[in-house]
């Protein structure tokens, strides 16, 4: 059915392509959620997802996976074969993000993080990861964290390295 009236009222920043499929159910006895959906195009504000698939399941952990053929950040900047995989426990989420633009100049990435949830803050540890930007390989070193609390965001030892170049964020 046409979801335009619903999304305009409750989610005005989201638009779905015609024939978008969303299915899900929740079993209150087993406390299990199952969800899946796909859309040839989903727009969220200025972000556009082409051929988006998503699925979630909460059997023992909450698992959420989504992928799309192209994820447009702007009309001229995109990530192809884009995928997010998460596994969430009561106090943390393992997070993975991959993409591969398959362009002449290599543009791909494989990023991993652990997100910890505490009553007063959220702490993100980006695990040693790697991405390519216009044929240049960049590595994210371990031992970093980004902390969000009610008043600020603090970045600790976030270091990106390419050959003899380094970008470090602290503060």
Beta-strand content:
over 45%
General shape:
globular
Q: Helix fraction?
A: under 10%
Largest sheet: 15 strands, antiparallel
* String of helices and strands: HEEEEEEEEEEEEEEE
Number of helices: 1
| N→C terminal distance | 49 Å
Number of E-state strands = 15
Low-confidence stretches: none
Residue-averaged pLDDT: 93
Which structural class do the helices and strands define? mainly beta
Radius of gyration, CA atoms, in whole angstroms: 18 Å
Could you please describe the fold and organization of this structure?
β7 (92-100) and β8 form a beta hairpin. The chain has a 15-stranded antiparallel β-sheet that branches. It is globular. The chain is mainly beta and 171 residues long. The protein has one helix at 4-10; strands at residues 14-16, 21-27, 32-44, 47-57, 62-72, 78-88, 92-100, 108-117, 121-126, 129-133, 136-140, 145-149, 153-156, 158-162, 165-169.
Compose a concise summary of this entry.
By secondary structure, this protein is mainly beta. Helices cover 4% and strands 64% of the residues.
Which secondary structure elements does this structure contain, and how are they paired or packed?
Layout: H1 4-10, E1 14-16, E2 21-27, E3 32-44, E4 47-57, E5 62-72, E6 78-88, E7 92-100, E8 108-117, E9 121-126, E10 129-133, E11 136-140, E12 145-149, E13 153-156, E14 158-162, E15 165-169
Antiparallel strand pairs: 1-3, 2-3, 3-4, 4-5, 5-6, 6-7, 7-8, 8-9, 8-10, 9-12, 10-11, 11-14, 12-13, 14-15
């Amino acid at each position: 059915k046409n979801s335009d009236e619903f999304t305009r009222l409750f989610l005005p920043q989201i638009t779905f392509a015609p024939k978008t499929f969303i299915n899900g159910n929740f079993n209150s006895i087993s406390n299990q959620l199952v969800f899946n959906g796909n859309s040839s195009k989903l727009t969220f504000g200025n972000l556009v997802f082409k051929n988006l698939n998503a699925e979630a399941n909460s059997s023992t952990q909450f698992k959420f996976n989504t992928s799309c053929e192209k994820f447009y950040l702007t009309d001229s900047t995109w990530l192809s074969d884009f995928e997010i995989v998460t596994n969430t426990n009561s106090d943390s989420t393992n997070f993975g993000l991959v993409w591969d633009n398959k362009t002449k100049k290599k543009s791909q990435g494989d990023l991993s993080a652990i997100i910890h949830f505490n009553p007063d803050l959220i702490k993100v540890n980006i695990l040693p990861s790697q991405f390519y930007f216009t044929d240049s390989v960049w590595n994210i070193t371990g031992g970093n964290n980004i902390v969000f609390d009610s008043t600020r965001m603090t970045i600790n030892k976030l270091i990106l390295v390419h050959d003899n170049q380094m970008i470090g964020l602290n503060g």
